[in-house]
């Protein structure tokens, strides 16, 4: 019986080690790229395109749990909104990562403005239907924000908060929030103390049209 030379690893062991090193290297590179985004934050759609492309390539090569944790870390500790949203968007492209999209998206959305910004990133390469996990994540995040927060971010543009609300089918937490969302839909949110005083002087400005239903 031939005795195996224990000083030399088997081919199977070598392949396993190579795959492990590859995963570790990919994760390390992805983390380094995210750290490099500190000065790239505002240039996501310009000269940051090459960096964004490399991040997109690396996401499917790194374990889903690791990518999700990095996205949360980037948003909460590094205060890097755009790259955190980008990581979640890339997770949504891959079957191996989709199961964590809803939970991670809910965690990285910290302001009402993030809702529309995520859709801008999601549709950067063309408008496509939202995945079920993305809808769940947006729907979980939407109720976080009160009227003042929504009003501060309810600006004109290609993607408005009311569009996000209709697309994700979020459910209000109570009747008061349902009322706020109706005001959002009709463009009648209260924007700060000055507008609040003006609205008191002109109460007709806040009257709802007849037969207005709750948001779907």
Characterization of the model:
With 216 residues, the protein is mostly helical. The chain has a domain at 10-108. Helix content is 58%, strand content 0%. The chain has 11 helices and no strands. The N and C termini lie far apart (74 Å).
Quick description:
By secondary structure, this protein is mainly α. It has helices spanning 11-36, 49-58, 64-76, 81-91, 101-108, 112-122, 132-141, 147-153, 161-168, 175-185, 192-201.
Mean pLDDT: 80
Helical residue percent band? 55-70%
- Tally of DSSP helical segments: 11
Q: What would you report as the Rg, rounded to the nearest angstrom? A: 23 Å
The biggest beta sheet reads: none
Q: What are the low-pLDDT stretches, counting only 5+ consecutive residues below 50?
A: 13-21, 193-216
Number of strands: 0
Topology as a string of helices (H) and strands (E): HHHHHHHHHHH
Shape: elongated
Strand content: under 5%
In whole angstroms, the N-to-C terminal distance is 74 Å
Structural class: mainly alpha
